[in-house]
Amino acid sequence: MRALTRLLCRFGCLLALCWLAACAQPFVPEERLSFDAPTRATVTAVPLIQQEDFFCGPTSIAMVMQWAGADITQQEVAALAFNPGAGGTYLADMIGSSRRLGQLAVEISDFDQLIAEVTAGHPVIVFQNLGLGIAPVWHYGVVTGYDFERDEVYLNSGQLDQMIMAFAVFERTWRRGDFWGLVVLPPDQLPASAPEADVLAAGAALERVEQFQAAETLYEAGAARWPENWLWQFGLGNARYARGDLRGARQALRRARTLGPDIPEVRANLAFVEAELAG
Amino acid sequence: MRLLNISKKSMAIALSAQLVLATQAVTVAQAEMLGTDAAISKYTALNNRSVLMDELQREDVQAEMIAMGVDPAEAEARLAALSDAEISTILTQMENDSAGADILGTLFTIFVILLVTDLLCLTRFFNFTRCVR
């Protein structure tokens, strides 16, 4: 009887998998992506962490941060992100906790961005529904690679083994999560696919959670990549001011003024810093 | 008449109080650094708009519009009537439809022309466009 149950269960799983893959269209990169992506890419050295119950969100962040060299555990992330009442981690808390830990966190929302990040060597946290629309099993995993030829997506998914999904299955589970993805990086590394405005906003968010050092690093990186935009120097000035570095702030705000001579906010903050330096 | 006087006086008091408050509000605003957040939301929208406006000024774009029977001045007026939020919605859709790549050159031109023709009810390309007829 037990053997029969097990057989049924296996059969059921198999059936479910077949069904998931059934109406599957193969992933044709030429049709689905707007750029020529390499056939395969892998982000190396993303650690596999066995998640504790319900900690897939914090575990995903911990894996990505450990990959970047941080010394952090899923419990430490969970303290900032996990919602015990909900038995899970909300999307907003995934972003918020990453920022409170001094990371640059930017959302992505399609395959183009996902593949661009992975080929740039950045792991991407994805939000999936591994169950069905009517019986959702929400889950966070980390995409660490893909292979178009073998039709495989590689994930660190809270287990000690790497998870391998066919593109079609991955797409279904990710689609049910509204293609929500999160790039979490140390603030001196910029995401490959995010628009400038999103990265700027992520910097301002770091200021809001008083991660001024991280904000300063991010603004410096942004200023190097987008040198004509005064907003990076403006943010840099504000972050330095918040850290008590008045001279550094003045220097950045002066550069901001050179780039945007007519911006009243730049003039106001520069005058403010200069007054404080004089007084 | 006396009543009128009183109301005049109270009006004056109210107004001067308001003035004092307003002055104070300005002083308070200057007593701290202006935030990056506010500047970003203000100026990135402005940038977006000026990018679209610049595109409209281009000769080939104008020629294209005239060929389609669109008055460039009217096109500009329609674009100016969009709110910042609407502009950024449109730009987001442009980015999504060009599948994330930087919108460059011809593609962007086509988008801008489509946007203008949308606004003039000639096409219906963008999810969000007001077309008033």
Report on the architecture of this protein.
The complex is a heterodimer of chains A (279) and B (133). Chain A has twelve helices and seven strands. In chain A, 51% of the residues lie in helices and 13% in strands. With 279 residues, chain A is an alpha+beta fold. Chain B has 133 residues and is mostly helical. Chain B is elongated, with a radius of gyration of 23 Å. The model of chain B is unreliable at 21-29 (pLDDT under 50). Classes of the chains: A alpha+beta (279), B mainly alpha (133). Chain A binds chain B through residues 33-35, 110, 112-113, 116, 193, 195, 197, 200-201, 203-204, 207-208, 231, 234-235, 238-239, 241-242, 263, 265, 268-269, 272-273, and chain B through 30, 32-40, 42-44, 95-96, 98-101.
Number of H- or I-type helical stretches of chain A: 12
**Structure classification of chain B:** mainly alpha
Identify low-pLDDT runs of chain A.
Answer: 7-23
Extended strand count of chain B: 0
- Oligomer status: heterodimer
**Helix/strand/pairing category of chain A:** alpha+beta
SSE sequence of chain B, one letter per element: HHHHHH
Following the backbone from N to C, one meets helices and strands of chain A in this order, namely: HHEHHHEHEEEEHEHHHHH
General shape of chain A: globular
Specify the helix fraction band of chain A.
Answer: 40-55%
Low-confidence stretches of chain B: 21-29
